[in-house]
Amino acid sequence: MGAVFIHEPPSKSQRESSRGVAGIKTAVRDRTMWVVAGFIFFWTFSPSNRIPLFYYQTDTLKFSQQFIGLLAR
Predict the structure, then answer these.
(1) Sign of torsion, CA 55 56 57 58?
(2) Which run of H or E residues covers position 13?
(3) Do 58 and 71 touch, CB atoms closer than 8 A?
C-alpha cells in the first residue's frame, strides 16, 4: 500500500549518498568515537561489576531477585 499511496520525487543526485558515506568514514576515523565505543564495550561485557553488586543487593539490601530483575531492565 505504501508504494501505491506514497509518492516521492526521485533523488536528484548521488551527492547526498556520498556525503553520508563520507560522514561514516569520518566517524570511523575519529579517535573519540573509538574511545567511547571501547568504554561501552568493556562496561557492558565486564562481569566484575555485576556479581558483587548482585550479592550486595540480595544480602545487604535484602532485595528479591525479581526486584533486581526489574531494576536491570
Answers:
(1) positive
(2) none
(3) no
| Positions of the chain with pLDDT lower than 70, given as ranges | 11-16, 47-49
Query: Could you give the C-alpha distances from 60 to 21, 68, 71, in angstroms and in order?
Result: 52, 13, 16
pTM above 0.70, yes or no: no
- Residue at grid coordinates 556525503: 19
C-alpha distances in Å from residue 12, one per residue of 6, 9, 26, 56: 18, 9, 24, 60
Measured from the Cβ of residue 67, the count of other Cβ atoms closer than 10 Å reads: 13
**Residues with Cβ within 8 Å of residue 39, at least 6 apart in sequence:** none
3-state secondary structure of 67: helix
The answer to whether residues 33 and 23 touch, using CB atoms and an 8 Å cutoff, is: no
